[in-house]
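Subject: for your reference before the review

Hello V.,

The reviewers asked for a structural picture of the protein, and I figured it would be easier to keep everything in one thread rather than splitting it across files. Below is the amino acid sequence we used in the manuscript, unchanged from the supplementary table.
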Amino acid sequence: MAASMLIGASAQAMTCAAGDRDGLAVRALQTRLMVAALTCDARADYNQFVTRFRPHLTEHGTRMRRYFRHAHGVRHKQALNSYVTDLANRASTLSINDRAGFCTISRTAFGRLLGAADRDAYSVLSQVAAETGARASWAGC
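And here is what came back from the structure prediction:
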């Protein structure tokens, strides 16, 4: 479904490890859900998501920053900022082009994430990131 995909970002990249890809995918999912919080009136779900998954989001954020430092050297902050901005712009475009579909997919993602058992939270986060097309935003790695 076209509305479920976050298409690749503009960052120039190199080969990366699975952990790096996961970090990028989770950030893409988090960005999509942030847009959904505003577009789909899902602020409460987003706040619960961020609170519940804070340790995982922090870990994936660290992986993402490490990848950009390695891939872009001294320009890593600029490349990372461009990447994150591009993610937000793409998620916003998806929500504008197919608001109903975007909100349906986002609400389903929130439901799966918030309904996951604590022991399964990490794997569910990775699965939902993959299923919403977030992995297409691997910044070329």
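For the response letter, the relevant points are probably these. Residues 40 and 103 are 6 Å apart (CA to CA). The longest helix spans residues 43-72.

Happy to draft the paragraph if you're swamped.

O.
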